[in-house]
Write a structure and sequence with these properties.
Organism: Paenibacillus sonchi
Keywords: 4Fe-4S, Iron, Iron-sulfur, Metal-binding, S-adenosyl-L-methionine
InterPro entries: Aldolase_TIM, BATS_dom, Elp3/MiaA/NifB-like_rSAM, FeFe-hyd_HydE_rSAM, HydE/PylB-like, rSAM, rSAM_sf
CATH architecture: Alpha-Beta Barrel
Largest sheet: 6 strands, parallel
Distance between the termini: 38 Å
Number of domains: 1
Bound molecules: S-adenosyl-L-homocysteine, iron/sulfur cluster
GO molecular function: 4 iron, 4 sulfur cluster binding; metal ion binding; transferase activity
Number of strands: 9
Protein name: [FeFe] hydrogenase H-cluster radical SAM maturase HydE
Amino acid sequence: MLEQLASGGSVSQQNLADLISHLEGGLRRRLHDLAHKARITAYGTAVYLRGLIEFSNICKQNCLYCGLRSGNRTLSRYRLLPEEILDCCREGYALGYRTFVLQSGEDDWYTTDKLVRLITSVKQQFPDAALTLSVGERDDESYTRLYAAGADRFLLRHETASAPLYRALHPTMEYAERRDRLRALQRIGYQVGAGFMVGLPGQTAADLADDLLYLQELQPDMIGIGPFLPHRDTPLRDEQPGTVENTLDMIALARLMVPDALIPATTAMGTAHPNGRERALQAGANVLMPNLSPMSVRAKYMLYNNKICTGDESAQCRFCLEQRVKSAGFHVDMGRGDSLKHLSRSLQEQ
Ligand code: SAH
Ligand code: SF4
């Protein structure tokens, strides 16, 4: 079945779920090895760096797993002003970054008008940099205006492809709407990132198979996969975290099933294990997202406990990651790093 997946074949949900529940030892090594080869074929040894700016931890949603959920009254909230965000971009640009990812909770203070002005300024000042948004669900009109203002990419994980699990975890959001928003982003023209958490309470091998099959159907440009990590001020505080091993398997399967996607070695992977990100790079991941947020707010963007890199300067993160990339056998590429899917779409349009 691994060979079948590696050669672009399709598999049934049942067979994929069986495979997922039997991955260990030699089979697991074979999977990671095939994923590594698929990544080399698609992107070589390049690892793309994106400067992440966590610009607001204020959120109107109430996702059960997340430390930023509106129900968490103990969190000290912050919001960076547009000028402060531009300062982060300036620092990042000087460090060589050519992609900025602006991420936040669903914070309505940042209206479409305000975001349009911000995006316009970023693109004016740094015209050769790509801009990625990760600000949650908005309507078509808003997404369209943000794209027209110059946003190139959008990260919106589908979180889980299981409808019952999605409903249990998202009291303020709709499963069908999440998928509809992802399709809307694609229609509008963004390079789109979907993805999911591994090891959510109650998640089964069949659910994970559905996550992978959904990605294969959606064909996103980017795929973010990380372990679920409990946060002490959420209802899931006592649940078991997702494991590095299972997450690596999902990264590797995602690489085989959507070979030309950009796949980050996530901060959650680095939090779950000191070498989690390096191991993700060796199992098919090819992107890192070092933090560019001001030091004063880092510790407040706590999606889960023990999040790493909250005490490092941006420059330190940049060089720490470069070392890690090299030690894992890859090289840093500071270019925009557009997805191959996007590049082939652009060629077709010409
Ligand atoms: N509000 C936006 C972006 C910020 S949250 C959004 O929800 O799209 C970014 C991602 O963090 C989420 O998509 C989720 O997958 C991840 N996340 C949140 N809480 C987490 C936790 N406890 N463990 C692991 N990942 C988590
Ligand atoms: Fe808000 Fe995103 Fe956290 Fe959900 S995952 S509570 S939308 S920040």
